[in-house]
TrEMBL record:
PANTHER family: DUAL SPECIFICITY PROTEIN PHOSPHATASE 12, DUAL SPECIFICITY PROTEIN PHOSPHATASE 12 FAMILY MEMBER. It comes from Macrophomina phaseolina (strain MS6) (Charcoal rot fungus). Pfam families: DSPc (PF00782). Belongs to the protein-tyrosine phosphatase family. Non-receptor class dual specificity subfamily. Gene3D superfamilies: Protein tyrosine phosphatase superfamily. GO terms for molecular function: protein tyrosine phosphatase activity; protein tyrosine/serine/threonine phosphatase activity. This is protein-tyrosine-phosphatase. One of its GO terms (cellular component) is nucleus. It comes from the Eukaryota.
Length: 236
């Protein structure tokens, strides 16, 4: 393992730590043109002056939302590669946050699972180990089929709600009312959809044309002249 490790395959994609940026000769040899910084630290602008730079300000903690940034980081990485450049993704140590971003990109590009993508990244950098919260987010991303429209995904909204509940519980507070209503509505919609699917499975589907008697509405019934219990009419 070096300070700058290339992800296996044909992609000019690298992963490393913050100190990688001081190895100018190694960066030049790798033709690094784009850099993704995944950390919440004051950064020396002079270090990044030669590169197209994208910053994702997150901490390496379980409850940090890195999933919402995947579409942007995927596009940035792909843009750098499409320009025949090299892309470096780094965090502080090149272990958790940067690994998560690279794994998400590989999942999106090759439609593979988090475990498969992590295996590829570890071939280049064995210390890569996304924290538990990031691994959960990668699994959610996989269940979302790596969609580019993260915010509109019900799977993502469900994860956000569960995250809000866990954070509120940790702080000794109740979750916000609008989030509770959202989850209730989501459950009702899911139940209604399930009931509709069950009904469609039970209803028989006619093999041929519908008989005319069934296709046409029945003729209107004549109005009742009297009801049960009313006095009968006698002949005069």
């Amino acid at each position: 393992m070096a300070l700058l490790d290339k992800v296996p395959g044909d992609l000019n994609l690298y992963i490393g730590g913050l100190f990688t940026l001081r190895r100018r000769e190694a960066l030049a040899q790798a033709n690094i043109t784009h850099v993704v910084s995944v950390l919440r630290l004051p950064l020396d602008k002079d270090l990044f002056a030669p590169f197209t730079h994208h910053v994702v300000q997150v901490d390496d903690v379980d409850d940090e939302n890195l999933l919402e940034h995947f579409p942007q980081t995927n596009r940035f990485i792909q843009d750098g590669l499409d320009r025949n450049g090299g892309v470096l993704v780094h965090c502080a140590m090149g272990k958790s946050r940067s690994a998560t971003v690279v794994i998400a990109y590989l999942m999106h590009k090759y439609h593979i699972s988090p475990a498969e993508a992590l295996e590829q990244v570890r071939l280049a950098r064995p210390i890569c180990e996304p924290n538990e919260g990031f691994m959960k987010q990668l699994n959610v991303y996989h269940r979302m089929n790596m969609t580019d429209n993260v915010d509109e995904s019900p799977e993502y909204q469900r994860w956000l709600y569960q995250r809000e509940v866990e954070l509120s519980r940790a702080c000794g507070q109740a979750p916000e009312a609008d989030k509770i209503r959202f989850e209730d509505e989501h459950i009702r919609e899911a139940q209604a959809e399930l009931e509709l699917r069950s009904l469609l499975l039970v209803l028989p589907i006619p093999a041929g044309p519908v008989p005319e008697a069934l296709a046409s509405p029945p003729p209107p019934r004549p109005p009742l002249l009297f009801t049960v219990g009313s006095p009968s009419f006698s002949e005069s």
